[in-house]
Write a structure and sequence with these properties.
The chain is an alpha+beta fold. Helix content is 37%, strand content 17%. The protein has helices at 6-21, 77-86, 98-104, 135-144, 165-188, 196-209; strands spanning 31-36, 39-42, 58-61, 66-68, 91-95, 109-110, 124-127, 150-153, 157-162. Helix 1 (6-21) packs parallel to helix 5 (165-188), helix 2 packs across helix 4 (135-144) and helix 3 (98-104) crosses helix 5 (165-188). The model has no long low-confidence stretch (mean pLDDT 93). Bound molecules: zinc ion (ZN). Zinc ion (ZN) binds at residues 76, 94, 96, 132, 156-157.
Length: 221
């Protein structure tokens, strides 16, 4: 036991610890998963994320059948599997990050107020409230993620996804940061929102400059 999806299990444990260290998950609230083909490594229910070890990570198939691991998977397993069934993505983070969660209690969407939010697909939708762990909640969140890598969950929290755990964790960090910016801006006045043309110009500039990638310095010769 414990040899299936070894690399993904390790990434899930590292991601859970990183989220806990950043204050984005507390105690056992929040869950992380990583997919390889039709198998998913996912945090266990009741696992303390700040201390999670790879051998505590459970492996399930896309129907939720446990294939490996000693512990039952997170109660939000339907949410994770629903996202993997709908979208081509490699990893998912669900958390109750404080500012994102606060905004989820008030907003119907988090407007695109900063170009870094284009990493999330722009405006972040808020999925309607449903009881945690239910298929209704999973469906609502899967729909809210259409064309996005992040969604808020009304009166509950947030979910992000990406090609791998590090990318999904990064999206959660950006989302919580943007939520903080929006909160502070909103406290002062009515935040300006980037319109479609401004968002498109950012995407074009990013493509042109390969924004965010490490590049060797131009050599002056
Ligand atoms: Zn939750």
């Amino acid at each position: 036991m414990g040899h299936m999806l070894e690399r993904e299990r390790e990434q899930v444990a590292i991601g859970a610890r990183r989220l806990a260290a950043a204050g984005l998950v507390g105690g056992t609230s929040g869950n992380v998963s990583a997919r390889r083909d039709d198998r998913v490594a996912i945090t266990p229910t009741g696992g303390v994320l700040a201390e999670l070890e790879p051998e505590q990570v459970t492996v399930v198939d896309l129907e939720g059948e446990v294939l490996d691991g000693e512990l039952a998977p997170t109660s939000e397993i339907d949410l994770h599997l629903g996202i993997y069934r709908r979208y081509r993505t490699g990893a998912i983070v669900h958390c109750h990050a404080p500012v994102a969660t606060a905004l989820s209690c008030v907003l119907d969407e988090l407007p695109c107020i900063h170009y870094e939010m284009l990493l999330l697909g722009g405006t972040v939708r808020v999925a309607p409230y449903a009881t945690f762990g239910t298929p209704e909640l999973a469906r609502a969140v899967v729909d809210a993620l259409e064309g996005r890598t992040a969604a808020l969950m009304a009166n509950h929290g947030a979910v992000t996804h990406g090609a791998d755990v590090a990318t999904a964790v990064r999206a959660t960090e950006v989302l919580e940061w943007a939520a903080n910016v929006y909160w502070h801006a909103r406290a002062i006045g009515a935040p300006r929102v980037l319109d479609e043309a401004q968002q498109q110009a950012v995407l074009e500039a990013a493509l042109g400059r390969r924004y965010g990638r490490v590049q060797p310095a131009e050599r002056a010769s």
